Amino acid sequence: MSTASLYTRRIEVSADETKPRKHQDHHLWKENLWRLAIVAVLIVAWQFAVDFGWVNAFLMGSPGGIAIEAWRQLQSGQLLSDTWTTLYATIVGFLLGSIGGSMAGLLLWYSRHVARIIDPFVVALNGLPKISLAPMIIIWFGSGMLSKVALAFIATFIVALLSAYQGTHQIDANLVNLMRSLGATKRQIFLKVVVPATLPWIISAFRLNIGFALIAEIGGEFIASDKGLGRSIFVAGNLFNLNAVWVGVLTLMLVAIALYLVVSRIERHLLPWESR
Question: Can you tell me the distance from the alpha carbon of 26 to that of 34, in angstroms, rounded to the nearest whole number?
Answer without folding.
Answer: 13
